[in-house]
């Protein structure tokens, strides 16, 4: 069968369909998360949100970074999980969500500091 990506589908044998579809749903959940983060990056620049320019820029950049992490992690994790399902190897670790959580933690701290600075003025 000619499916993309070949290096994933050419390894091992066909896994249980339910497991493969669950892996696909997880991939799509990561993509939805990335889209929400991207929407947040755009929403920060709406005039109703009053933040200093540097806070808006920092928050937007961190949200864009988080969206990029979510997209790249979704692809990486889908490939590794599908490969593990097909070859009977152990499932991949949990590194991507930890990186995403760290980026979002930086975002929360950055925006909180920015809001406090605006409030103090």
Give the structure's gist in a few sentences.
By secondary structure, the chain is an all-alpha fold.
Task: Give a verbal description of the structure.
The protein is mainly alpha-helical and 121 residues long. 76% of the residues lie in helices and 0% in strands.
Instruction: Give the averaged pLDDT, no decimals.
Output: 82
Helix share bin? over 70%
Which shape, going by the Cα principal axes? elongated
Task: Tell me the domain tally.
Answer: 1
Helix count, DSSP H or I runs of 4 or more residues:
4
Q: pLDDT under 50 segments (min length 5)?
A: none
Structural class: mainly alpha
What would you report as the Rg, rounded to the nearest angstrom?
A: 19 Å
Distance between the termini: 65 Å
Summarize the main sheet: none
- β-strand percent reads under 5%
- Could you tell me the number of beta strands? 0
| Element order: H for helix, E for strand | HHHH
């Amino acid at each position: 069968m000619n499916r993309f990506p070949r290096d994933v589908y050419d390894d091992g044998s066909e896994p249980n369909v339910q497991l493969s579809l669950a892996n696909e749903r997880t991939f799509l959940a990561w993509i939805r998360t990335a889209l929400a983060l991207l929407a947040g990056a755009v929403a920060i620049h709406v005039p109703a949100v009053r933040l200093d320019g540097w806070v808006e820029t920092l928050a937007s950049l961190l949200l864009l970074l988080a969206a990029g992490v979510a997209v790249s992690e979704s692809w990486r994790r889908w490939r590794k999980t599908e490969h593990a399902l097909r070859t009977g190897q152990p499932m991949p670790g949990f590194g991507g969500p930890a990186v995403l959580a760290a980026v979002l933690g930086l975002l929360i701290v950055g925006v909180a500091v920015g809001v406090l600075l605006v409030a103090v003025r």
